[in-house]
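To make the argument concrete, we let one protein speak, a sequence paired with a row of structure tokens, as a model reads it:
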Amino acid sequence: MKFATWNINGLRARFDLVKHWLEKRQPDVVALQETKTEDSSFPVAQFEALGYHCYQHGERAWNGVALLSREKMEVLTVGLPGEETAGARLITAKLDGLSMTSVYCPNGKNPEHKDFTAKLSWYDSLGKYWQELTRDYETSVIGGDFNIVPSARDSWRGQEGDGEMFHTIEERERLWAFVALDLHDLYRELNAGTKEFTWWDYRGGSWEKGEGLRIDMIYGTPKARALTEKVVIDKEYRDRIDDLTPSDHVPVYMDILMHR
């Protein structure tokens, strides 16, 4: 089974790009972030025509997450418990004993902004939720935009970026605490020697210069890790394809054996 995550930075603006990618890569389940679309406006019929069931948690113009699946799923959670005022940022569903979560973690703006403290608190809530979820679902994956650079090798600036936004020790300690809940960074573990990124700013020619960050991850429980065969950062979709405007993020996908 192919599970993918992708921050598309606006579904209305990039539906045709997502359609192109779905038809080319043929994923089984896709976690989308920053759909920026209310549930009532979500293009359910268009995705169904492509062979996907839709499960969405959206809001107008901001945030928004969704799961697309070839098979019907059972929704477990809509919204992060305790963080209802922080926007539409989490949805979890299950398929054949595997729980899959799409998550869009807060940006935080800058360390002096009140949103930065809220971001740290949001991560605390995420950890509590994950502990509760995995008591019932030992085989689980969570994919999304975490808005934190895990380590220096995940930033084009390397150690020179340490202390900057998305690279602060406060943010990293929250992410590390989440990963310490017996989670595996599936891309990093299967691509240990690489330095690849998932996000490049639209400004300043960042894509052309290779000035990116790895902030889109798929984490999995030990049982999910044991079933994971490969994880790929799909950089082809950061280029303009067929005159379609790319997102500033690229898809990340994994192959997981549902039965072994």
